[in-house]
Write a structure and sequence with these properties.
Largest sheet: 6 strands, parallel
Shape: globular
Number of domains: 2
Number of strands: 9
Structural class: alpha/beta
CATH architecture of the largest domain: 3-Layer(aba) Sandwich
Radius of gyration: 20 Å
Number of helices: 13
Strand order of the largest sheet: 3-2-1-4-5-6
CATH class of the largest domain: Alpha Beta
CATH superfamily of the largest domain: NAD(P)-binding Rossmann-like Domain
Distance between the termini: 63 Å
Length: 275
């Protein structure tokens, strides 16, 4: 049996900004999709996307060949992947993929717990944000056993145009941290460059188009005005904690975090930047 047929039913825990479009892509690719979210108001839009609503985590876990977890924080993951959560209901051999952005140590701890229940766990972080989730063009970093990775690939390909195996479980969190560190630094640098140009009377749109042809090109510049900055503080807090655990100083990350905190409510308002 090939990998595409091995996984026919995919469970998704969390129908938020990233989870909801992923649910739709999975259903359109022919997977049977079971969804659970703590907010019952999500049921109608989930069903509209061709998925099936599960009233309980236990039901979703028992009926899925693979489970994608799209919850936000370390504490939520620990509660979910425990004897009090869904783990006792997951069938042996099921793949659990954690899409959340958390610390690598958290993933490794949970993978050990899952292994004792004969459940294969990987971290499968996603990059490129909500816009790419909507269009099914996410980049997925995946950390875990190579055989498990290949078995899960058809599921990941439903919503990702690029899929990279990063190494052992937890390594996808490191790759995502590197991505996010550069992303938020670009948000700040782009604002400063365009605000400076604006003060000197340059046509900012002209300059932005020109910069996208130069060595200064970056994704934030390309999609200027669309980044929501929703996760900046959480991302940078995780990166700071990771650096401290490994004894490395990241001074620019600390500064970027502080700037992003004040920038979020007035992003893209170049006339207000630096005042």
């Amino acid at each position: 049996m090939n990998a595409a047929k091995e996984i026919s039913t995919v469970g998704v825990v969390g129908a938020g900004r990233m989870g909801m479009p992923i649910i739709g892509h999975l259903a359109r690719k022919g997977f049977t999709v079971l969804v659970h979210d703590i907010n019952p108001a999500k049921k109608a839009p989930v069903v509209e996307r061709g998925a099936n609503w599960s009233d309980s985590i236990a039901g979703l876990a028992a009926g899925s060949d693979a489970i994608l977890v799209c919850v936000g924080f370390d504490s939520e993951l620990r509660e979910l992947i425990s004897e009090r959560g869904m783990l006792p209901h997951v069938r042996p051999g099921t793949i659990v993929a954690l899409l959340s952005t958390v610390k690598p140590d958290t993933i490794q701890e949970l993978a050990d717990i899952a292994a004792r229940a004969q459940v294969a766990m990987v971290d499968a972080t996603v990059c490129r944000g909500g816009r790419a989730a909507d269009t099914g063009t996410l980049l997925s970093f995946v950390g875990g056993d190579v055989a498990v990775f290949h078995r899960l690939e058809p599921v990941l390909a439903a919503y990702s145009t690029d899929i990279v195996h990063t190494g052992k479980v937890g390594s996808a969190q490191v790759a995502k941290a590197a991505n996010n560190l550069i992303l938020w630094a670009c948000v700040v640098a782009d604002h400063e460059a365009l605000a400076l140009a604006d003060r000197y009377g340059l046509d900012v749109n002209m300059l932005r188009e020109a910069l996208m042809k130069s060595s200064a090109n970056n994704d934030v510049l390309k999609h200027w005005g669309t980044n929501e900055m929703e996760w900046a503080q959480d991302d940078l807090a995780i990166i700071t904690a990771m650096a401290q655990e490994r004894g490395i100083s990241l001074p620019q990350t600390g500064l970027t975090r502080e700037i992003c905190r004040s920038l979020k409510p007035r992003r893209y308002k170049l006339d207000e930047y630096g005042c």
